[in-house]
Amino acid sequence: MEQKLFIYNTLSRKKEEFTPLTPGRVGMYVCGPTVYGDAHLGHARPAITFDLLFRYLQHLGYKVRYVRNITDVGHLEHDADEGEDKIAKKARLEQLEPMEVAQYYTNRFHAAMQALNVLPPSIEPHASGHIIEQIELVKQILANGFAYESHGSVYFDVEKYNKQHHYGKLSGRNLEDVINNSRELDGVGEKRNQVDFALWKHAQPEHIMRWPSPWGDGFPGWHCECTAMGRKYLGDHFDIHGGGMDLVFPHHECEIAQAVASQGSDMVRYWMHNNMITINGQKMGKSLGNFITLAQFFSGEHESLAQAYSPMTIRFFILQAHYRSTVDFSNEALQASEKGLARLMEGVENLKRVTPSDGEGSVGMAYVDELRAKCYEAMGDDLNSPIVISHLFEACRVVNTIVDKKATIGREALEALSDVFHTFAFDILGLKEEAGNGNAREEAFGQVVDMLLEQRMIAKANKDWATSDKIRDRLAALGFEVKDTKDGFTWRLNK
Ligand code: ZN
């Protein structure tokens, strides 16, 4: 790996040079979606952020095992109905098997990720398929004395753990802050302390998603799945654990406590978190009416959307901000991204049309080498994708000067420049060319055909039949079907 990679570690609160635990190999775990609803922007950002990391690590030559889970059980929200799993609730309301709900939304999630050109992870384990591993984790924590059983549930003893280890080290809290800020009502009367969290929950008789355990029928606490599955597929110690910033506390804080309480040491070397997305300056939420799914962004069918936005526009928009900055979605911002993406793609297209000059040309290898180095430098600086994009924009400007014959480029430099564009725009940023509406080249093409047909109308008005027929025949030979209408013409391309 000749390129250095520095990443910001949430745990140390500084950028650190990435050094894998095993040379040449990287184990990374990212918290995946909860599958009881359609994928929305909140899913797109971590998926794209860690896709960028996954792509870049592979580009640098690492063999990466990327695990991203599917949360299909045990994810209880604080404001949810006491004890009822969201998937079970949806299944009950829609009279479906809970796994039908989970599968339906998993399929929709996969389709959205594919549209966004997010590479599938190496392993995508389901929480419901790893109940045994989660029960084993709970048993270890109990055996080590950091948990207790109460009314068929098992709780993590935060206070006891905190006497030997620091509970709150990831989120920068101490136990006192956590206690003072806790409004946790779940499990009141069963827990020794309100900050204790559930490792295993006793299932009420009406609870559908339940499994037998040494403590009776129940289901695992949400935090258990990532610790259990991360360990199963990546080992007791692995390199990177990522997710959205909203997961730092309590989810990842609890994961750290579970790992240390069960195996006596930290499991994760680097913790990485992407920042959140707001919509028109507001937090996204179902109750705020600004909850827009990815499918709605792609189709434009939502009252807040002025138009449809292609998946690549969404991807480009997310990459135009550094992953640790907040991103605010608005129609104006997305339209600006759409234009920016078209400009970048036009640069790639223009490059294909450049004829290299004999000899070195005015844009030489030194320019291309510097461009490449600057792009690597930006990626190595905690995945600074907006800077990479700005370097590529600057390169587009240089390409335009070559197209406009104000500059020249030799064959070697042209090939190298094309390689820089492909490597960074396509392989690393994960952009791809999209057909369809809003494509600048196609729009320009249509305008040129219109222009020719307008010339034909002028010729007809002047009774210049030779010119009029010539335009029509030449277009017909190219596959255009032209129809005269009472106020002009229509055309389509038969291909
Ligand atoms: Zn998780």
Keyword list:
binds zinc ion; 16 helices; Isoleucyl-tRNA Synthetase, Domain 1; 4-stranded antiparallel sheet; 46% helix; Rossmann fold; elongated
What does this structure look like?
- The protein is of the alpha/beta class.
- The protein folds into three domains: 21-274, 3-Layer(aba) Sandwich (Rossmann fold); 294-428, Orthogonal Bundle (Isoleucyl-tRNA Synthetase, Domain 1); 440-493, no CATH class.
- Helix content is 46%, strand content 14%.
- It contains 16 helices and 15 strands.
- The strands form five sheets. A four-stranded parallel β-sheet has the order 4-3-9-10, with helices on both faces.
- A hairpin with a 4-residue loop joins strand 1 (6-9) and strand 2.
- The longest helix is centred in the last third of the chain and has 23 residues, at 331-353.
- The two termini are 47 Å apart.
- Bound molecules: zinc ion.
